[in-house]
Specification:
Elements lengths: L1 H33 L1 H6 L2 H11 L5 E7 L5 E4 L20 E7 L2 E12 L2 E10 L6 H14 L2 H27 L12 H4 L4 H76 L6 H32 L4 E5 H15 L6 E4 L4 E5 H18 L7 E8 L5 E7 L31 H11 L3 E7 L3 E7 L10
Parallel strand pairs: 7-9
Antiparallel strand pairs: 1-2, 1-5, 3-4, 4-5, 6-8, 9-10, 10-12, 11-12
Length: about 475
């Protein structure tokens, strides 16, 4: 019978401990879900208010938010802010409870992930001192009850514990589980607020926390409204800027090309119809005029293409780089059939990308290789891929042409930047800038390696695309 009484009291103790852990878990969940908008907007002041609102009683040790890398974003203990804690791996992003040391004492810490859809923004950590709870009093009561050996007193004490603690805590837990900032929920039982024990302290603390949360939520909702207004204003400004850019592009295309065609056309008429009346110097001047107008027309085309690349919507499909590279090869060989090249194009170079932009990218990269191997005795262009240690596929275009000095590599992808004189190789300096912008639109990377006289190799990888940028 004595053993039965021991088990009854022990069960009550365990139930109270579990209920208390559930309350702390609910607090961690509230912190994780309530701070999502502040995490997205990086509003650290609002994050600090959320974290401060979680500490309900002196039994709580601390509360903080840390990003997945372990950096502490905000902490109730100010000296820990901006420090790093050991990153926590949550199994399937489920809450986790652990015992850890803190300032010479052992605390129970609950970790709850802050998730926005499938994105893991941060972890909410809430810890409390298990040794400061009413559990110690229960253990003392159980000890004396066992010494007295009175089964009736044990049963009576158990009934009192269940009636005075378990039932109120169950009511408090039910209230916390129904707590919602956006919908109506039952009010907290006023009798719980009048308790003079730990249950009363928790009830009053939760009541105060609810008031603070509702106030913070209203402030957050108002701030969200103001933020939406600012986003709408910026969106309208961006739409207006795009419209103005389209108008400017049309003006450049129409108003600038027309006089260039006139100059080029009349220069050609002079060369053909008045050839006998012109000396060699005059003819050379006309040829220079024609080359200048044609170069200006090509520069206008390249600038317009760079503008379109920056504004076009992405249409993502599965593309074979090998097939597109073969198309570019055929275009180059058709335009310059006297160029004899050795080609090495690997098979099955599949990637998710916008095919139109990918064709422009390869036209610029392969066209570059074609141009800068024009003076090489045995020119060779190679297109392939390599897989890095992190399983990311990197594609490349390699040639054995003139190459360049790597100390000037930072100028490669800037508009109008050229590493060779126009006397050596023609060009406008826009092609690689366009290639860089295409890679940037695909959230990827592009870089080059080269040596003077030994050729160059351009590497690029295509990253993950935000679905909002797709059609």
């Amino acid at each position: 019978m004595l053993g039965l009484g021991y088990l009854i009291v022990d069960d009550a103790e365990q139930q109270l401990r579990n209920e208390r852990l559930r309350l702390v878990t609910s607090g961690a969940k509230t912190l994780a879900s309530g701070s999502l908008d502040a995490l997205v907007t990086r509003d650290y002041e609002l994050l600090e208010r959320w974290v401060s609102s979680v500490l309900l009683t002196e039994d709580y040790a601390y509360a903080f938010l840390a990003n997945p890398a372990g950096q502490i974003l905000t902490h109730t203990d100010l000296e820990f802010i901006a420090r790093y804690t050991k990153p926590v791996r949550l199994n399937n992003y489920a809450p986790m409870t652990r015992e850890i040391p803190y300032r010479g004492l052992t605390v129970t810490e609950v970790i709850y992930p802050a998730m926005l859809g499938d994105q893991h923004l941060a972890n909410a950590h809430v810890a409390f001192y298990p040794g400061r709870s009413n559990i110690s009093a229960i253990r003392t009561f159980k000890f004396y009850a066992l010494i007295l050996g009175s089964l009736l007193l044990m049963l009576g004490a158990t009934l009192i514990i269940v009636r005075r603690h378990t039932a109120p805590i169950s009511q408090l837990t039910q209230y916390v589980s129904q707590l919602s900032l956006e919908h109506d929920h039952p009010a907290l039982n006023s009798a719980l607020l009048e308790h003079q024990d730990e249950v009363g302290m928790l009830s009053r603390a939760f009541n105060e926390m609810e008031i603070r949360l509702i106030t913070a939520f209203e402030q957050l909702r108002n701030e969200e409204g103001r933020l939406r207004e600012r986003v709408d204003e910026r969106t309208q400004e961006l739409l207006l800027a795009n419209k103005e850019l389209e108008t400017f592009s049309y003006t450049v295309s129409h108003d600038l090309r027309s006089p260039l065609r006139t100059i080029d056309g009349f220069s050609l008429v002079l060369l053909v119809d008045y050839a006998e009346q012109l000396d060699e110097e005059g003819k050379q001047h006309l040829h220079r005029i024609r080359r200048g107008t044609q170069r200006m027309a090509q520069l206008i085309d390249d600038i317009l293409e760079l503008s379109r690349v920056s504004r076009t919507n992405l249409i993502m499909t599965t593309c074979d780089i090998a097939t597109i590279a073969q198309e570019v090869r055929e275009e180059l060989e058709f335009n310059q059939p006297d160029h004899q090249f050795q080609w090495q194009i690997a098979d099955n170079l599949f990637v998710r990308a916008d095919r139109h932009l990918l064709h422009i990218l390869l036209t610029n990269l392969i066209g570059n290789a074609w141009k800068y191997t024009g003076k090489t005795p045995q020119p060779c262009i190679e297109i392939g891929s390599i897989t890095q240690a992190d399983a990311i596929t990197v594609f490349y275009v390699r040639d054995n042409g003139s190459g360049f000095n790597m100390k000037y590599a930072d100028k490669l992808f800037k508009p109008f930047s050229r590493l060779h004189g126009r006397e050596e190789f023609e060009g406008t300096g826009i092609g690689l800038a366009t290639a860089y912008r295409i890679i940037e639109r695909h959230k990827g990377k592009i870089w080059a390696e080269a040596k003077p006289g030994e050729g160059a190799c351009f590497y690029f990888q295509l990253g993950k695309i935000n679905p909002k940028n797709l059609i």
